[in-house]
């Protein structure tokens, strides 16, 4: 009996590694955060640092339907003044205690200032509908979720969509997707995040992941590890990228889940991603492909179809995203092993992850 070629063993092993995550995403019921009646128990918390050129559409969309708290994290561009003119409550982040990263401290300060029993965190560059916060809270209540995040819709030029779609497929291959998150590898999107104020204010809230720079995923995995229910749903809020470079720089900071995954698992993920995403197409183009390559490429295009709903519009760029896979995987690798992350003039150390666990340890 002939032994299978090493390349066949590699591709089969890689498919077995990512297959359960992809299957969960493909077979899961994908709930949506649907519009609901207005309610007065929600506080929207927006962390902001030098966001004067992007914050106004969010504040206009929310109007006067919610208590809105904008946490000004040392802005120098008029962010606070814009927020006050729009009717939001402005809280200064102030000096960070030791052990806190910038965004986690801003989120904590917003929670402390909030009056609502539910908190909905929105990033300043999100373009929500007026009912995005109520829809997120209603979805959390319906699903019994302690923490719920909402996948946004991406608005971007074709070349940016091309790269973003490839990056998104790498996430599906590692974590599953909305409605089908893989246990132990829970994913979250902190752009739209809903939880009860009491949860976020207590020891299992932001203080548990205070030093993290990928704080949304860190919080989701921490809560799941202590028995809380974490969920992710689809929604209608939009996020805009102006260019290929903006996707590469913006998502490139966190796409590898720095400080979350132990290095051994990041290495296995990268090998598996390379074997099931760009390798089959390359083998077919070079005339060395086989039936397994055809099957893997078909699955890759199936993944493109699955993530297509995240884009407005999807278009040919998403279908052509397999060509971007080498760039996307290289970006994942650079992100996964970085020691520091720079953002808005600040530089943060990435927490080290113990070899046997995700980086969701409690901080003191």
TrEMBL record:
Q: Which key words are in the record?
A: Glycosyltransferase, Transferase
* Residue span, Glycosyltransferase 2-like domain: 43-166
Q: Does the keyword Transferase apply?
A: yes
Entry-linked SUPFAM superfamilies: Nucleotide-diphospho-sugar transferases
Q: Does the keyword Chloroplast apply?
A: no
Q: Which Gene3D superfamilies match?
A: Spore Coat Polysaccharide Biosynthesis Protein SpsA, Chain A
The record, for InterPro entries, names: Glyco_trans_2-like (IPR001173), Nucleotide-diphossugar_trans (IPR029044)
Instruction: Look up the domain of life of the source.
Output: Bacteria
**MF terms (GO), sorted A to Z:** glycosyltransferase activity
| Name of the featured protein | Dolichol-phosphate mannosyltransferase
Q: Which organism is it from?
A: Ilumatobacter fluminis
